[in-house]
Specification:
Shape: globular
Helix content: 55-70%
Strand content: under 5%
Distance between the termini: 23 Å
Number of strands: 4
Radius of gyration: 21 Å
Structural class: mainly alpha
Order of helices and strands: EHHHHHHHHHHHHEHEHHHEH
Mean pLDDT: 95
Length: 362
Amino acid sequence: MNYKSIRFTPNQKGDFISVLRKRVKTHFQTQKKSTYGNAGMVVKTVFMLALYFVPYFLMITGVVTDTWMIIGMWALMGFGMSGIGLSIMHDANHGSYSKNKTVNKYMSYVMNLIGASSFNWKIQHNVLHHSYTNIEGVDEDIDPGILMRLSPHAKHYKIHKFQHIYGWFLYSIMTFLWLTSKDFVQLNRYKKMGLIKGQKRTYGGVLAETIFSKIAYYAYALVIPLIFISAPWWIIVIGFLVMHMITGLWIGCIFQPAHVMPSSEYPIPDDTGNIENNWAVHQLFTTTNFSPKSRLFNWYVGGLNYQVEHHLFPNICHVHYKRISKIVKETAKEFGLPYNSQPNFAIALMEHAKMLKQLGKA
């Protein structure tokens, strides 16, 4: 179904989002705080960039030469890369990192810095995923290709029977698709869908930007290490693979349990394209939080364990999600709406695995 034909339907819970927005707005006014990033966000940005680049420079300058230490440096870069994507790029692309649009624009380009496309992410994530969460054929986050079935409405293949086992490996190689084919395939698809013009860009301009950023990434992330790091080439390649597999696994394990869960619904538009609920209520039925009490986990994953809050308020920086979560939970309860949440990350992953197994059945 074409995304343009989908319409969310007002229902008896229609006042939920207006009441919730008013309460959240009052919260920020009472606390006299901005909805954008704060000093803590700046500190986190510096930390994540350092976690990625310091090990890099330690290797290419010859400070670290031991083989196992070199692999360890690449692993640290993997956690730094994950942190950059989860905690910096994500907010910047939503325009919530800073009230300054120019700052958001250039901070969003850290996505290109780690080998992917900020432009494509903005369309896939902001436009399609956030607008049409868990709607088969529109939300690309639940359409990873034929090897995995993340929706009960997707076509079933025999191999899906084992997806709860091999799916974790596919998550780990996710970023390799970004580095190679996915960004170009998506760009062509978005051109046909008319989504590039909607972002006030041209296909040629975005394509040139994508090609240039790929070349620049491979130059500094792989070619320079191969030249300057005093280790066999295959050790460097292994380290590069380890870095990306850590990043891919982290991203997959953070984003997928938020929507592919036993508690999640997968609404189907009727023949005219209407969805049963309004947009905000739809988000509650399709989204799940996890590990709400872990401050360290919340800090590292960019508040994305509060996915309910993020989907309802993507324009608010993640540093505020924990504080507004009580307001969201109480308002949902008041309106008789679900507020899905798992107590910790381990249980969330187990529930996600359970859902993968369920979806793998014919």
